[in-house]
Structures are given as C-alpha cells and as structure tokens.
C-alpha cells in the first residue's frame, strides 16, 4: 500500500466510525474481506486449526487473531491493543426536553472531553439501538443520521461578562444541544424511522417495532480532511484512538504471517472497568479458551504486547508544557511512552524491542515523558501488563488537540506506524524475546 492509499483508507475509516460500535463494525468488515472467520462467545470453539479468526463483545470491542499452526502449535504471540472509544457526549435515556420554545437533547459527558471545542459545531447522532420487533424479539442495530442535527450555541459575547476570559463551563446547564423549534417529537419514532431508512429490504422488521433502549452519541458532522500547505496533516474527530485501531486492523489483516492477536477495547476513556473494557476479562477469556493454563503462561512469557494510543506532539504555542528533551515532533515516527509511575507499561527491555522493530521496518521512532509537575494520562497498557503478566510497550502517533472535538496529526506518522506493525506481525520469535541480564 502506498502512503497516499494509506491516507485515503484512513480518511474513509474515520468517517465510517462515528462511535465505538461503528468502529468495531468497520474493523469487522476489513477482517471479513481478508478471510477471517467470525466466532461467537456462546459457541463451543473446540481446538482451532490454522487460520484467522475474530470475536466481538458488546458490539464495541473486538479481538482478532491469526494462528499459524493452530492453537496446539502456538509458542508465542505478537499482540497489540488500542481502544475504540473517544471522549464526547452520550444521549440520556429520556432524550428530549423543551425550554423557551426550543427542543433540546439531553446529554451527559463521556470521558475527558475538551468541552469548549464542542460549542458551535454541527453535530450528528449515531450509535446502537435495541428494539422489539413485531414478533416480540429483541433486535439490535447501528444507526447513523449522517447529517447535522444539533448544535450547542455559545452565549453571545455581549451577554457573557466572562466571555473574553476563562469561561467556566457548567456541565449540567451549558451543554444541552438544540435540536429544533416547536413541539417535542417522539424520539423513539425518529430512531425507528432512521433505522428503517438504513435497513433497505429489512425495513419492515423495524417499522412495527418498539425501541427498548439505545447507546447514542453526538459526533462532529464535519468529515475528516487532509490539510496544510503541503497536505501534511490529517484533521478529524476521534484520531485518538481510531488511527491506532485502523493501523492494527490493517496490519493484522494484511501482514500477519505468524501467531498474532489484536484487541480493540471500548471504554478506555472512562476507566476500562467494564465488560468490554481492558479492565474486564475479554482478553483473558479468549486466551483461556484458546490455550490450556500451562501453555498460556509459556506463551505470554515469550510474547510482546504493543499498547497503541496516540501521544502528545509538541505544540509550538505552548512549548513550556513539555519535557524539553522528550517532546515528540510530527513526521518523526512513532513515539515510545514511558512513565516512572507506570502510567505507561514500557520498560527498558520492551522499549528496546520496539526500537529494533522500527529499525526492521525502516521507520524512525522517538520518546515521550511527561513533565514532573504535570499528571500523566494512561492507556490500556498497564491493565494488560498487570492482568496478563505479559511484557508491554506503550507507543503511539504524535498528535495535537487530544480530546478536542477535532484533532490533528501528521498522516505520514500513521503510515510509519502501520509499517512498524506490519513488521511486528511478521516478526520471528527472536524479536519477541526480551533481553535478560546474564543471558
């Protein structure tokens, strides 16, 4: 794949993935195109032979793996993980209310969203809807309105004495998007009508249904784009962390020739302690079904897990916010992230392994450390390391405006990370073997 092909494919992936549910479905499409077989958790898998497989949980998390010689012949795994969710706004169960002649949407903040960036943005709605069909069965489907529906208007500067300074945002009163004027429509009917439009021949299944529940989110309706005088940048919502999800899925599907696995977890932005999150049992459950305990322990000890989550690129307007000797630059390759408090799971051994991996792929890499006087974010890496006992390296692509409604990265860094992961999924066992003192 050329770098230009990579860029166009990334843009399509971002636009097709407005929520974690859609991102998981999009990845499933990539895997299916490359011949991966879908497994279902309630089924008996038996002993799997050589091949490519994937399984989903909660429709928003996914594990895919390649077995070169089947489960019995596996001795180590090239493992990598990322997260499918992004900060934003989730729609409340009782979605609509009226104020001053406006119909507004009730939302709650999801994760550590940079709230100020959501004002005055054209937003749409997408997510998962569960309904009861005409025969009394519960059905689930994805919905995406695919057009601007709501906006959170700013208060005019003339009416806000704090507008020219640092305006404090009240998360309860200031963040109710406007949907329309007039009387409140029936929100369930709106959802069923949109589902029916999307389902084509299957629309009758929806038309007579009743909405039981939904997981809906706002998303920025502006499509992702390539910008910059020389087209260096990609600007989009949800670069954190869909850029990593795309790279891992594309690398596994197109380049995995050895025993390899990726896990894409939901709910990282809210702590991961869920059935679909990295703090849950999804990865442990799948590994336990593939390998007996003694074999699994040997495999994990001989494996490497790459935790992929975007990193902070140096911002030219805020140089003082960075550790001077560890400030990642755009177009300088993937970033290795370390932290003394183990907010990142990187060790000297796993960092060295990733450096060698990048050299094999012919791409540069760089380092990030947070300033001592600032708190450090985290990733799924420490959860995987402590939960499985597998060596982990935390890496990512450098970006600006993390957790903003619209983020920015140098797209060639994404292409370089994809190259590195393609090399990883084809690497021999010698690269996975961590260096040990005295050996």
From TrEMBL:
GO cellular component terms attached to this protein's record: cytoplasm
EC top class named in words: hydrolase
UniProt xrefs under SUPFAM superfamilies: Aminopeptidase/glucanase lid domain (SSF101821), Zn-dependent exopeptidases (SSF53187)
GO molecular function ontology, one term from the record: aminopeptidase activity
Keywords: Aminopeptidase, Hydrolase, Metal-binding, Metalloprotease, Protease, Zinc
Gene Ontology process terms (BP): proteolysis
Cofactors demanded by this protein: Zn(2+)
Record-listed E.C. numbers: 3.4.11.-
Family membership: Belongs to the peptidase M18 family.
Protein name, entry field: M18 family aminopeptidase
């Amino acid at each position: 794949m050329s770098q230009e092909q990579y860029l166009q494919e990334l843009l399509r992936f971002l636009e097709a993935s407005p929520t974690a549910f859609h991102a998981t479905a999009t990845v499933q499409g990539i895997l299916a195109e490359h011949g991966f077989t879908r497994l279902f958790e309630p089924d008996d898998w038996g002993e799997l032979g050589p091949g490519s497989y994937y399984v989903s949980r909660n429709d928003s998390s996914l594990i895919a793996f390649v077995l070169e010689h089947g489960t019995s012949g596996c001795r180590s795994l090239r493992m990598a993980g990322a997260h499918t969710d992004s900060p934003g706004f989730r729609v409340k169960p009782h979605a609509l209310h009226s104020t001053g002649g406006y119909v507004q949407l009730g939302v709650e903040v999801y994760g550590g969203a940079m709230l100020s960036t959501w004002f005055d943005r054209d937003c749409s709605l997408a997510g998962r809807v569960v309904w009861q069909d005409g025969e009394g069965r519960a059905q689930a489907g994805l919905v995406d309105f695919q057009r601007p529906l709501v906006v959170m208007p700013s208060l005019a500067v003339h009416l806000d004495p704090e507008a020219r300074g640092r305006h404090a945002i009240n998360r309860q009163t200031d963040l109710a998007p406007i949907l329309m004027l007039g009387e409140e429509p029936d929100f369930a009917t709106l959802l069923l009508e949109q589902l029916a439009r999307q389902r084509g021949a299957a629309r009758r299944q929806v038309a007579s249904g009743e909405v039981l529940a939904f997981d809906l989110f706002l998303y920025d309706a502006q499509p992702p784009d390539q910008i910059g005088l020389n087209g260096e940048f990609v600007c989009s919502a949800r670069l954190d962390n869909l850029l990593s999800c795309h790279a891992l899925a594309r690398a596994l599907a197109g380049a995995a020739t050895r025993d390899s696995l990726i896990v894409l977890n939901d709910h990282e932005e809210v702590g991961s302690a869920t059935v679909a999150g990295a703090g849950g049992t999804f990865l442990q459950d799948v590994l336990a079904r593939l390998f007996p305990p003694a074999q699994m322990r040997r495999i994990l000890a001989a494996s490497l897990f790459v935790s992929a989550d975007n990193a902070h690129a140096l911002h030219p307007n805020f140089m003082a916010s960075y550790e001077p000797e560890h400030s990642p630059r755009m177009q300088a390759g993937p970033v290795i992230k370390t932290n003394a408090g183990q907010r990142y799971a990187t060790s000297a051994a796993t960092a060295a392994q990733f450096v060698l991996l990048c050299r094999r792929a012919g791409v540069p890499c760089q380092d990030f450390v947070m300033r001592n006087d600032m708190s450090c974010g985290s990733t799924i890496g420490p959860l995987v390391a402590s939960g499985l006992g597998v060596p982990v390296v935390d890496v990512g692509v450098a970006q600006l405006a993390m957790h903003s409604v619209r983020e920015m990265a140098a797209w060639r860094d994404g292409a370089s990370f994809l190259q590195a992961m393609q090399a990883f999924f084809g690497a021999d066992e010698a690269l996975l073997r961590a260096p040990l003192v005295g050996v």
